[in-house]
Amino acid sequence: MKRADIVVIGGGIVGSAIAYFLARSGRAGKIAVVEPDPSYAFAATPAANGGIRQLFSLPENIEMARFGLDFFADFHREMAVDGQPADIGFRRRGYLFLSDDGDHATMEANHRLQAAMGARVDLLDRAALKARLPSLNVEDVALAVHSPDDAWINPHAALMGFRDKARALGVAYVQDRVVDWRKDGGLARDVALASGSALAAETFVLAAGAWSAEIGRMIGLELPVEPMCRESHFFVTRSEIEPLPFLKAETHLAFGPEGQGYAGGLPDWDQPPGFHLEPQPTRFEELVWPKLAHRVPALDSLKLQRSWVGHYARNSFDLNVILGPWQGGAENVFMACGYSGHGIMHAPASGRAIAELILEGGYRSLDLGAFGYGRIAQGRPYRERGIV
Ligand SMILES: Cc1cc2nc3c(=O)[nH]c(=O)nc-3n(C[C@H](O)[C@H](O)[C@H](O)COP(=O)(O)OP(=O)(O)OC[C@H]3O[C@@H](n4cnc5c(N)ncnc54)[C@H](O)[C@@H]3O)c2cc1C
């Protein structure tokens, strides 16, 4: 049996950010990340939009996103390896939330909190929105919030940046799959791997995205995390449209500029939870395109170039991350899963948080105790009320 001090299960952006923050402390000992697929073909990270925004209703989510913004803005320098910058295509082009389904009171309340916490957020009525973004059809929009400092990145490049830097700092990536997780005397002891070997450790971190519940179950850790399919599309248009922020509406449309075109879609609420590995052939034409053309009439003319699927690790309990130790269970098990669509922007804050918990014994920079496993065990949801 091989040994490490800390084993991270799952090497997506979250597991890799955790490994990086642990390694950069220089005090974490031997760190191993178990990741079966270095191509990340089915992981959520490369399928994501990579948006980072402060438009939340919970102070912790706002603070985590703000740390993410600062961290990713400087990522190319901070994560350089051997003088090679880690370019992640950071673009500070803003976010726009639209209230087009009657919940503008929530949007106003969230805006008050975001502004009070120092975010640059503009509350726009219909006329102000039209003046700022003339391409939008605003007839059914009651209110909007624009956050010009928010940004987006290339999530696959960010994952590679964390991974490369973690390796440069001595982290071992073990290309294997956890198939069993064993405990003894109340503590987790080792994971069995698909290759037939095993890996023992003092501390374990579960960061396996949409696979976290099935891996947790191996050791008796029940998590309300399920894979939820999200289909995305990349399309181009020859129509003239002013530079758009990343747009998200209460009626679920979510898209933003990407390279020479646009990427986004509609959440697949109509699909049951589970892995759905192929895009549905008529979905874009029948459901997504009409909504795009309604919101931006110039998108009545576009060319679809690619569709793909990815999976949220959806926390069906309250749609927020489950972060920290397994309260009431093996105390050497930590988790970071259930991000439900926020895992890119919250990965840096999660990496820092888990490193503090393991190395310092508690939160030091930002208290994220409200996102602990205890709320699940006690049936006390801590719900996000913004557009998820
Ligand atoms: C369409 C879409 C758009 C999104 N847009 C955004 C956005 O704009 N902003 C944002 O912040 N977030 C967004 N997200 C969410 C974001 O992608 C995720 O929250 C984030 O990528 C989660 O990272 P992760 O490392 O937890 O999971 P993943 O990237 O899924 O990584 C989990 C890893 O665990 C590994 N694994 C699985 N089984 C095992 C096993 N048995 N043993 C060991 N390892 C295993 C997998 O191979 C995988 O690599 C979006 C997601 C989707 C699908």
Ordered list of secondary-structure elements with their pairings:
Elements: E1 2-3, E2 6-9, H1 13-25, E3 31-34, E4 51-52, H2 59-73, H3 75-78, E5 95-99, H4 104-116, E6 122-124, H5 126-132, E7 143-147, E8 151-152, H6 155-168, E9 172-174, E10 178-184, E11 187-193, E12 198-200, E13 203-206, H7 212-217, E14 225-236, E15 246-249, E16 254-258, E17 261-265, H8 283-295, E18 303-315, E19 322-325, E20 333-337, H9 347-360, H10 374-377
Parallel strand pairs: 1-12, 2-3, 2-13, 3-9, 5-15, 13-20
Antiparallel strand pairs: 4-8, 5-7, 6-7, 10-11, 11-12, 14-17, 14-18, 15-16, 16-17, 19-20
Bound molecules: flavin-adenine dinucleotide (FAD).
Flavin-adenine dinucleotide (FAD) is lined by residues 9-15, 34-37, 40, 43-45, 47-51, 177-178, 207-211, 215, 230, 232, 310-313, 339, 341-345.
